[in-house]
Amino acid sequence: LWSCWRWRCWAGISAWGWGGIAVLWLRLARARPRRRPRRGLQSRPRPRPRLLPGPAEDTRGAAAPAASAAASPARAPPLGTAAAGPEPPLSRSGERTPGEGRPGAAGGRSGAAPGPGPSADSRIPPAGKAQEALQEPYRLGSLLGSGGFGSVFAATRLSDGAPVAIKRVPRNRVWHWGELPDGTSAPLEVLLLAKVSSGCAGVIQLLEWLELPDSVVLVLERPERCQELSGFLVERRFLPEEEARGLFRQVLEAMRHCTSCGVLHRDIKPENILLDLATGQLKLIDFGCGAFLQDTAYTQFAGTRSYSPPEWTQFGWYYGKPATIWSLGILLHQMVCGEHPFRRGWNISCDHELSLPGRLSQECQNLIRRCLSMLHSDRPSLEELFRDPWLQDIDLP
Questions:
Q1: Active site includes 295?
Q2: 209, 262 in Cβ contact below 8 A?
Q3: Active-site residue identified among 121, 267, 393, 395
Q4: How far apart are CA 203 and CA 282, in angstroms?
Q5: Could you tell me the domains of the chain?
Q6: Which of 22, 96, 151, 317 could form a Cys-Cys staple with 88, CB 3.0–4.6 A?
Q7: CA–CA separation, 100 vs 113, rounded Å?
Q8: Mean pLDDT of residues grouped by 10 in the chain (397 residues)?
C-alpha cells in the first residue's frame, strides 16, 4: 500500500509541475511581440507587360504612370533599332516641360505640368465672385455624363433660352493651374479652351467659368440636337466613305486650329466629338487631358490608353504631333470599319500587318496605313493629310 501511495503522489506532483511549465511557456510565447513585415517587402502582384490595349481599356483620360525613356534603359523593344530612333530630347533642367501630362490616379483631368503656360485669350472672364453668379442665369437640366473628371449637366441660359452644358469638376481633380492674362489663377483646361474657343466652329466654346469652394464649373456651348460620334457609329455600325470623308475633314480642321493655337488635345476619340444632327457640324470637346504644344518629347501620358501610340507603349515617350496622327488613324478606322483596329492585349510590332476590308477604296486604305505607321517619323503631318487624294473635293457644312 505504501508503494502504491508513493507512486501516485510522485505522478501527481510531476504532472502538476510539467503542466505549470507548459502554461508558463504558452504565456511567454503569447506575450512575445511578433515582427511585422516591412512595408514594401510585402508580396506584390506581378506587373503586367506593357501592351497596347484595345477599346475595352478606355480610361477616360486617366494618365499612365510616368515612364521616362532615360530612366528605363532596359526597355529593348521588339520594334528594332530603327523604330526606337534617338532618345527624346528633354528640357535642359531635366524637369518636366510645360506640356507634359498630369501624373496621378485616374480621374484627374488637367493635363499639363503646373505653372503658367502661354497666355490665354483675355476674352474669357475670371472666375465668378459668388455661386449665385451661376445659379441665377441658368436652369439646370438632366445629367449628360459623369466619371472621374466630374459631371456634365444639360442647362438652359435664361436670358435667351440657349442650350448650354455645365461641367462641374471637383477641386481635388484639378491637378494643374496657370494664369490668365489678368493674373487670375485658372485650371489648365480653362487656359486651353480660352486659346481655342474662337476662330473654329469645330471646337466647343467656353462661355464662362466659375470657381467654387469645392469645385470648378465650366459653362460650354451645347448644340440643341447633338450626339456623341461614338453613339452615332454604334447606330450606323460604320459610315460610307463619302460620309466619313466629310466628318474626318472636319476633325482635321479642328486639329489644325488647335495646333495653330499651341494646344495639344491628347484624347481624340469618338466619345470626345459631338455631332450636330441638324447641321452635320462636328465639335471637338473635353480638353481635360490637353497640354500646351511643345517640340520636345512628352514623357508622361494623358488620355485613353487604347489610343496611345506604339512609341509610348514601348519606350515611354512620344511627340505630340505624330501621336495625334496615330489617334486620327484609329478614329478614321473606326469610322469606316466600325471597330478599333487593334484588339485588346495585342503587342504591335514592326511586322504587324493591318487588315482592312476589301470594300474600302485603295486611297482610304493607304491613308489609314500611313497614319498608323509604326515609326512616328513615317506618319504624315496634318498639312500632308489635307493634301491626301482621299480628302479632296469635300463640301463642308
A1: no
A2: no
A3: 267
A4: 8
A5: 55-63+224-391 (1.10.510.10), 114-221 (3.30.200.20)
A6: 317
A7: 6
A8: 60 64 61 49 36 37 36 33 41 34 32 34 44 71 83 92 93 87 88 92 94 91 92 94 96 97 96 94 94 95 91 94 97 95 62 81 96 95 96 81
